[in-house]
Design a protein that fits this description.
6-stranded parallel beta sheet; alpha/beta; DNA polymerase, domain 1; 238 residues; two-stranded antiparallel sheet; disordered C terminus; 2 domains
């Protein structure tokens, strides 16, 4: 088993991706930019400023900052209350720490949103450290956020795994020296996550538990997925 488990939050532990994208779309429209939702989905999880550089290349740095600030305000006022946690987060954290593992969170979000997510997850006693948008300037795929989380855990990168729902989570982890594992709760396909470097991909973190504990990818095929879910459920129950 790995010694350290670094989890992304949005799209991995809480179901917030649609709300994040809608709030960004709203903010862009207020500044006169119409970007299709499906286009925004391609960059879900990417550092906000990098996303805007790709989406609205004519926007100056000051305007990009204003858009992101407005997105945050829209998200907190109109979307944050609708965010729900994914099932099984607390149980997965409990199972990993019971075997001696250390859990950390590494997320670009900060402030009120981060506090809300921590409350929804309700697993404070299992979390050894957090790294959020208040700690670093650049979001994923920049590896510094993951590196900050590693420092909180005191675990060598070679013994840790970054778990997220986007290829940018995987890239950040790999660049920081960890392994990477992916979940499909953020809308990216297994192919995209695997190509980004995830050694294992599952539907959600409960289904990923077997791979996190064993350090091995689950068997391929539909039947194997059923076996994985069964094994994970038994481990959580135990």
């Amino acid at each position: 088993m790995f010694a350290g488990f670094i989890f992304d939050v949005e799209g991995t532990l809480v179901d917030s991706v649609p709300q994040n994208l809608r709030s960004l779309q709203d903010a862009l429209e207020r500044h006169g930019y119409r970007v299709p939702y499906q286009t925004l989905k391609l960059y879900s999880g990417l550092d906000g400023d990098q996303t805007l550089q790709l989406m609205v290349p004519d926007a100056a740095e000051k305007e990009r900052g204003a858009i992101l600030q407005e997105q945050g305000a829209i998200y907190e006022s109109s979307y944050l209350d609708s965010v729900k946690p994914f099932e099984g987060v607390r149980d997965v954290f409990s199972a990993l720490t019971a075997r001696g593992g250390k859990v950390a969170l590494a997320t670009d979000c900060k402030g009120l949103s981060f506090k809300r997510y921590l409350s929804l997850i309700n697993a404070h006693e299992f979390i050894a450290g957090t790294a959020c948008g208040d700690d670093v300037k650049h979001g994923k795929p920049d590896p510094r956020l993951v590196g900050h989380a590693l420092g909180k855990l005191g675990v060598p990168a070679s013994q840790a795994v970054m778990i997220g729902d986007t290829p940018y989570d995987a890239e950040a982890g790999l660049e920081a020296g960890t392994k990477a594992a992916g979940v499909m709760t953020g809308g990216f396909t297994p192919e995209v996550l695997s190509q980004a470097g995830c050694f294992a991909v599952a539907g959600d973190i409960r289904a990923l538990l077997f791979s996190l504990e064993s350090g091995e990818a689950a068997p391929e095929g539909q039947a194997a997925m059923g076996t994985l879910l069964e094994i994970s459920s038994k481990r959580l129950a135990g």
